[in-house]
Design a protein that fits this description.
Blueprint lengths: L1 E6 L3 H10 L5 E7 L3 E3 L4 H5 L9 E3 H6 L5 E5 L2 E5 L4 E4 L2 E4 L2 E4 L3 E3 L8 H4 L6 H20 L10 E5 L3 H20 L8 E6 L10 H13 L3 E4 L3 E4 L3 E4 L4 E3 L2 E4 L3 E3 L30 E3 L18 H20 L12 E5 L5 E5 L3 E5 H29 L2
Parallel strand pairs: 1-2, 1-9, 2-5, 9-19, 11-12, 11-17, 12-13
Antiparallel strand pairs: 3-4, 6-7, 7-8, 10-18, 14-15, 15-16, 20-21, 21-22
The structure holds flavin-adenine dinucleotide (FAD).
Length: about 400
């Protein structure tokens, strides 16, 4: 029996386990500091009150039990790795491995040059924060409903720092909710203003022109105020200060402007990039070890032309599938090929039943069709998780 330890039950970790569990000569342990898998890609809908918690959190114990005793779950934080002894320290427990997969993801990066950013804003890369924003958003809506002159109690501006994929999705969904609510609870909901702020000259920096233009148009039609080329210099409890000297009063700020690799990377000696991601070999090995792999957001992944790919769930899953196959090949003594990463397409949810997407470079879609395609991808992913947890739940309660 070969022991595979996977650190991190995110998109990459779970996909690696799905691909590895079919081999009868492999036993797998999943370690995660949280008891659940958080579907970050659905955070926008959760914050805006469109999805409930069961649609963004999946119990990892039930999920692992879905593999009928072939996968063990350890709810602990991995604190260090001994590459020489081939073991992982997870709080008070030591686990030995034959193969190790690091899939610890990334966290929000609060730039130190923006004074007060860390103290007065939060990211959406963990469920507790997303929940906090959901509550804040609901509170603001309630406030406009209750107060005739809601502004008297403070600003009704929501700021989103960072106009990348996650920023635009969160902005669009909240704006869509406010627009829909104005039909039911009245126009006061429209008093809440959403500001999408980015230092780049454009929203969705690095993405295709089609996605950028269609997304911009959609955000504007939803009433989102887009401030591109705008530098935030400081934040206090009530105001955002811009480099040009202007100030914006705000109620709360969601920061999606940058990420850095998970903290476990800090304990690992390996080449890293400026956001702390591990720079791996072409076969996704780190620390010069053929039995240690890193996948997903915690590692820098390049495409065939050597361009660094933006961290996405899609790349986390592709790298996971590659590593599972490579582990099989290593056990069998078969040569493996380098990882060949490519992005198949990106779909952006833009409020309600509207989305924009680009696939395989040439296919471009918007509106309801794009929404249906995005939903189909999400639904297939969610269904796979549900089938596992249903089996796990049944096994446990037999
Ligand atoms: C709002 C939002 C929208 C997004 N939309 C899209 C989208 O539409 N399409 C897309 O492809 N991507 C999207 N992404 C990006 C995508 O969510 C990430 O790229 C993806 O989650 C990366 O997967 P991962 O497995 O590397 O890490 P994660 O999914 O972040 O999982 C990492 C796991 O490791 C665990 N962990 C970390 N450190 C430790 C430790 N020391 N010990 C134990 N466990 C640990 C964490 O608890 C977590 O469960 C979006 C992200 C956000 C925030």
């Amino acid at each position: 029996m070969k022991k595979v330890v996977v650190i991190g039950g995110g998109y990459g970790g779970l996909r690696a386990i799905e691909a590895l569990h079919k081999y009868r000569d492999i036993e797998i342990t999943l370690i995660d500091k949280n008891p659940y898998h958080y579907l970050q890609t659905e955070a926008y809908g959760y914050i805006a009150g469109q999805f409930d918690v069961h649609q963004v959190a999946i119990d990892l114990k039930n999920w692992c039990d879905g593999f009928k005793e072939r996968v063990t779950f350890l709810h602990k934080e991995a604190t260090s790795i001994s590459f020489e002894e081939k073991s992982v320290q997870a709080e008070d427990e030591t686990l030995s491995y034959d193969y190790l997969i690091l899939a610890t993801g990334a966290r929000t990066h609060f730039f130190s040059f923006i004074e007060g950013l860390r103290e007065h804003s939060y990211g959406v890369k963990d469920l507790q924060r997303a929940y906090k924003f959901r509550v804040e958003f609901e509170k603001l809506i309630y406030k406009t409903l209750r107060e005739e002159e809601a502004c008297k109690e403070g600003p009704l501006n929501i700021a989103i720092g960072g106009a990348g994929l996650s920023g635009v999705e969160v902005a669009a969904e909240m704006a869509y909710v406010l627009e829909s609510y104005s039909k039911t609870i009245g126009d006061t909901a429209k008093e809440i203003q959403i500001y999408l702020i980015d230092a780049s000259e454009t929203i969705l920096p690095g993405m295709g022109r089609y996605s950028i233009e269609k997304t911009k148009r959609r955000l504007e039609s939803l009433g989102v105020r887009i401030l591109t080329g705008t530098f935030i210099s400081a934040l206090d409890a009530s105001h955002i200060c811009f480099k040009n000297g202007e100030k914006l009063p705000y109620s709360f700020m969601i920061f999606t402007g940058g990420i850095q690799a998970a903290a476990l990377n800090d304990t690992i000696e390996n080449e890293k990039n400026r956001i702390g991601q591990l720079v791996p070999s072409t076969e996704l090995n780190i620390h010069g070890r053929k039995e240690v792999f890193a996948i997903g957001d915690c590692v820098e992944i390049k495409d065939r032309e050597g361009r660094v790919l933006p961290p996405t769930a899609q790349i986390a899953e592709k790298s996971a599938e590659y590593v599972a196959k490579t582990i099989r090949q290593r056990i069998d003594g078969v040569e493996s090929r380098p990882f060949d990463a490519s992005v198949s397409g990106v779909f952006i949810a833009l409020g309600g039943t509207y989305a924009v997407g680009e696939m395989f470079r040439y296919i471009k879609v918007k509106g309801y069709v794009a929404y249906l395609l995005k939903k189909a991808i999400t639904h297939a992913y969610y269904l796979g998780l549900r089938l596992r947890i249903n089996t796990g739940f049944k096994n446990r309660n037999r």
